Amino acid sequence: MRHDEPAYQGRPLPRPHEEVVDQGLGFDLGTLFDRRRALRFLGIGAAGVALTACGAGSTGSSPTTTSSAASSPASAAGEIPDETAGPYPGDGSNGPDVLTQSGIVRGDIRTSFGESSGTAEGVPMTLELTIADLANGGATFTGVAVYVWHCTREGGYSMYSDGIENENFLRGVQIADGAGRVTFTSIFPACYDGRWPHIHFEVYPDQASITDSSNAIATSQVALPQDACEAVYQQPGYEDSVANLQKVSLSSDNVFGDDGGASQLATVTGDVGSGYTVSLAVRVDTRTTPSAGGGPGGAPPSR
Question: What CA–CA distance (Å, rounded) separates 196 from 245?
């Protein structure tokens, strides 16, 4: 390189009469790799390099917000992935609609209500979801309505499965308190053939909006940890779950498999004697467009 040639960090510029930021992709990549080596020498990891690179390149307009967790700005902040509601939502989008029934707003969902009187048996479980509002800087999402539903210890869904079509247990709505928290008293769900053990939920702007499933601002699922599942499935009534759990994993599941349920895997405390508390932080971004609802997400056998 001649001494009079324009250069940047000792490297000749491919376009000597243009700005450094306009030297082309090849030159930019070389600069990035040189920066990565320098930062590694200083003890800064790859994440720091990525952030530095993104900051240096932010000269254009902001990317368009989409419903995809992989491409939306909220994904970096941990937005809960949109997931299918499955074939048994009970929200009016696929047959029965429990959300129009008086009594659906309740904390204990083990029993049916209205004209039904059945009770779901199983290992006790308390479900705690804490909803955060990413569109408001991650503040607690007070006042949103959260609809929760899951299968029985035998793997069936009320309102749909053989023998419990007239029941509506294991379904309920709670309104988020000042901490953005909703709490449900229930039983630990089964593992049915083809799916990792899970709990469904939908988030609505408020209680008045729950009667129309299209109002949901988030639809997702909670993944249950393997160690708790293995302990529960040794208990009476969960016999089929033992073999079913052995045939599936978080990485092979058709809902959680894309990332192993990274932001959907619950924290669980307790034991089979006193029951379990299942907790998950749910981050919702109303700036993205919900994309859930397509595909069954795995159906349990009819009973």
Answer: 7
Q: Which residue is associated with the tokens 């294991």?
A: 170
Could you report the per-residue pLDDT of 178-207, keeping only the tens digit for each?
A: 999 999 999 999 999 999 999 999 999 999
DSSP β-ladder status, 124-133 and 275-284: parallel
Assign 68 a pLDDT band (cuts: 50, 70, 90). Answer: very low
Whether residues 84 and 44 share a domain: the answer is no
> In this structure, what are the phi and psi dihedrals at residue 49, rounded to the nearest 5 degrees?
-60, -45
Identify the H or E element spanning 154: none
Q: Which of 46-55, 119-128, 233-242, 264-273 has the lowest mean pLDDT?
A: 46-55
Cβ-proximal residues to 25 (8 Å cutoff; 6+ apart), any chain = none
Exposure of 58 by Cβ count < 10 A (0-12 exposed, 13-18 middle, 19+ buried)? Answer: exposed
Query: Does residue 188 form part of some domain?
Result: yes
Residue 291 pLDDT level (bands cut at 50, 70, 90): confident
Specify whether the backbone of 119 is left (phi greater than 0), alpha (psi in -120 to 50) or beta: beta
Compute the half-sphere exposure of residue 115: CA atoms within 13 Å on the CB side of its CA: 5
One-letter amino acid of 237: G
Dump pLDDT digits (tens) for 228-253. Answer: 999 999 999 999 999 999 999 999 99
Q: Which two tokens stand for residue 208?
A: 């008045």
Question: How far, in Å, CA of 267 to CA of 250, rounded?
Answer: 15
Q: At residue 67, what is the residue type?
A: S
* Phi–psi pair at 263, nearest 5 degrees: -105, 10
Q: How many domains does the chain have?
A: 2
Distance of CA 221 to the CA centre of its chain: 5
Q: Could you list the residue range(s) of the whole structural domain that residue 51 is in?
A: 7-56
